[in-house]
Design goal:
By secondary structure, the protein is α/β, with parallel strands linked by helices. The protein has helices spanning 22-33, 47-53, 61-65, 81-87, 107-116, 154-165, 176-199, 210-224, 227-235, 240-271, and strands spanning 14-18, 37-41, 56-58, 71-74, 98-101, 122-128, 143-150, 170-173. It has an eight-stranded mixed sheet with strand order 3-2-1-4-5-6-7-8, sandwiched between helices.
Length: 272
């Protein structure tokens, strides 16, 4: 269901971004524009970029967690989440902090966060259904999915959600399980078809139809994402295997119908 998260108590936040890759950088630019104070850490040294953006960059994880963040935003890859979280020196976090993630699957990070984090830390699972390409001209009318898994500090949570609502996002609150079930039928299926088209090495032709142009766009947008992301969508979404099997079965049914029609046509032509 769509919800409003507006709050009169929306305030400037100190946000620590864990994993400052392409997506973390994409989110950071809007957060800075809104006036939030950002800090970041990553396995890759992004200190030069952070200096340009006005972000404090930490190579040391302990220094990062001690930096008194209101929110720690997890922007790691799906596959590295568990290892990175378990390496965080969470006992050095100075006070209860909101831990939020933006991973493209939701049940898996929710379960890992609840397992690893101290009980006093709040947990917000989110998925912005857009990225650097689709969100390059703004976030208006783009969907932001979230579940308040364990929230006691409503003010901080509301202020964080306001980052996305104030940009015009469609705010959609749903359970992590509901998200994954829907995402398997949409996001994972789209990525899978895009990867299949890439394996087929389809290319533009002098006589493209509009439909084929769409297929080319699906292929291009899929391969722009890493295979780590794609495999994470499969490995850590319990509904993905069924959708992969459904796709295989459907392709088989279409092939079966085509071969049957070809056989019928051949028989009819021989009768003439």
């Amino acid at each position: 269901m769509s919800v409003s998260t507006s709050s009169s108590s929306s305030r400037t936040l100190k946000i620590g971004i864990l994993g400052f890759g392409t997506f973390g950088q994409f989110l950071a630019k809007t957060m800075i524009k809104q006036g939030h104070i950002l800090q970041a850490t990553s396995r890759t040294d992004h200190s030069q970029l952070c200096d340009q953006l006005g972000i404090s960059f930490f190579r040391d994880l302990r220094a990062f967690v001690e930096a008194d963040n209101d929110v720690i935003l997890i922007c790691t890859s799906i596959l590295s989440l568990s290892q990175i979280l378990k390496s965080l020196p969470l006992n050095f976090v100075k006070r209860p902090t909101l831990i939020a993630d933006v991973l493209s699957v939701k049940e898996y990070p929710r379960n890992v966060l609840l397992q690893v984090l101290p009980e006093e830390m709040d947990v917000l699972c989110t998925h912005p259904m857009f990225g650097p390409e689709s969100g390059k001209d703004g976030w208006k009318d783009l969907t932001f999915v979230f579940e308040k898994v364990r929230i006691r500090d409503e003010e901080t949570c509301s202020s964080f959600l306001q980052i996305f609502e104030s940009e015009g996002c469609k705010m959609l609150e749903m359970s992590c399980e509901e998200h994954d079930k829907a995402a398997a039928k949409s996001q994972f299926l789209t990525h899978t078809i895009g990867r299949v088209l890439s394996e087929m090495e389809i290319q533009s032709t002098p006589m493209n139809t509009k439909g084929f142009e769409t297929l080319l766009q699906v292929k291009e947008s899929s391969v722009k994402n890493s295979f780590d992301l794609f495999s994470g969508l499969f490995i850590h979404n319990k509904f993905a295997m069924q959708e992969l099997q459904n796709l295989e079965f459907a392709l088989g049914k279409v092939k079966e119908k085509l071969l049957k029609r070809m056989e019928e046509t051949s028989l009819n032509e021989h009768k003439l």
